[in-house]
Amino acid sequence: xxxxxxxxxxxxxxxxxxxxxxxxxxxxxxxxxxxxxxxxxxxxxxxxxxxxxxxxxxxxxxxxxxxxxxxxxxxxxxxxxxxxxxxxxxxxxxxxxxxxxxxxxxxxxxxxxxxxxxxxxxxxxxxxxxxxxxxxxxxxxxxxxxxxxxxxxxxxxxxxxxxxxxxxxxxxxxxxxxxxxxxxxxxx
Length: 188
Ligand SMILES: Cc1cc2nc3c(=O)[nH]c(=O)nc-3n(C[C@H](O)[C@H](O)[C@H](O)COP(=O)(O)O)c2cc1C
Description:
The longest helix has 8 residues, at 62-69. Strands 2-1-5-8-9-4-3 form a 7-stranded antiparallel beta sheet. Helices cover 15% and strands 31% of the residues. It has one domain (16-187): Roll (Pnp Oxidase, Chain A), CATH 2.30.110. It is an alpha+beta fold. The protein is globular and about 60 Å long. The chain is built from 5 helices and 11 strands. It binds flavin mononucleotide. Flavin mononucleotide binds at residues 24, 36, 38-42, 55-57, 59-62, 86, 89-93, 161. The site of flavin mononucleotide (FMN) has 21 residues, from strand 2.
């Protein structure tokens, strides 16, 4: 076996840039008086059936509200909203009403106090089901309660963060469903 000489070393501190999956999402919360939202790039599906994990830490104003209410809405913006979404992630809800500032519209959700984002093509109402890794990693596990989609707002697809302030849109899709023989339930 030859060594890794064909590769260049890459800094561990930047490894998230290689694996950050996207899509960039917003997470809205409500403390009963104020609705807020933040931008999130560290997220992933955890289990089939609507279990989702994301990192939201105590550096965010949203953290206390999420901890107290255990509810949120994950909204998925199309890349056409990229500038607003980055701006949402660069100010604190403690200082500004981000809905008003960035022209986003809160809508009542069906099962949680946190609002949907009208401009996003998907909204997932969530409840926290596991917070055991929050103290160590800010990692929340939530269960989707209701999911709403509006394909007319999907535009050219979701936003993917490269982890360094640059973003990409979805590439062309390739259809490999016939090769997914071990997982037939996934391709319906
Ligand atoms: C592209 C982007 C991705 C971000 N990803 C995360 C993330 O995964 N987790 C997190 O806690 N903060 C993330 N942030 C930072 C928060 O969005 C930011 O701290 C925001 O101001 C929090 O809002 P709040 O203080 O009103 O809760 C991200 C910001 C941007 C612009």
